[in-house]
UniProtKB/TrEMBL annotation:
Membrane-spanning residues: none
Family to which this protein belongs: Belongs to the truncated hemoglobin family. Group II subfamily.
Organism of this sequence: Salicibibacter halophilus
Keyword Zinc: no
Keywords: Heme, Iron, Metal-binding, Transport
Leader peptide range in chain numbering: none
Keyword check for Translocase: no
Official protein name in the record: Globin
Length: 126
């Protein structure tokens, strides 16, 4: 039985789903010509933080805040030139990652993508 209190994190499939999404996403980012220049060569720590952030963003445990404080996404990303083109490239990588993750709850996947679309557009600073 499903409860009304189910979070997006739960609907997606919890920790395993978030880990799959992040791995699929950064596999694409690491090869994308628009995104490679703004990410470090070693994405290990970036992947770990993204897992923490997405867990929290989707209503799971507040892993990111516990370790790093409030996400302050826009402020944390101001040092990086984020254009409309880069935001769209990021969303394209995420869209492909979500498809490749083969998660069962398509409605939850669509909701996550919609939330991330709003976030990506908010991050544009150039």
């Amino acid at each position: 039985m499903r409860y009304l209190e189910e979070t997006l994190y739960d609907a997606l499939g919890g920790e395993r789903a978030i880990a799959t999404i992040v791995e699929q996403f950064y596999d694409r980012v690491s090869k994308h010509p628009e995104l490679m220049p703004i990410f470090p060569d070693d994405l290990t720590e970036t992947r770990r933080k993204q897992k923490q952030f997405l867990t929290q963003f989707c209503g799971g445990p507040a892993l990111f805040t516990r370790e790093h404080g409030h996400p302050r996404l826009r402020a944390r990303h101001l040092p990086f030139p984020i254009t409309h083109v880069k935001a769209q490239a990021w969303l394209d990588c995420m869209g492909r990652a979500l498809q490749a993750s083969e998660l069962e709850n398509e409605k939850a996947v669509q909701e996550l993508y919609q939330r991330l679309t709003l976030t990506a557009h908010h991050m544009i600073n150039t």
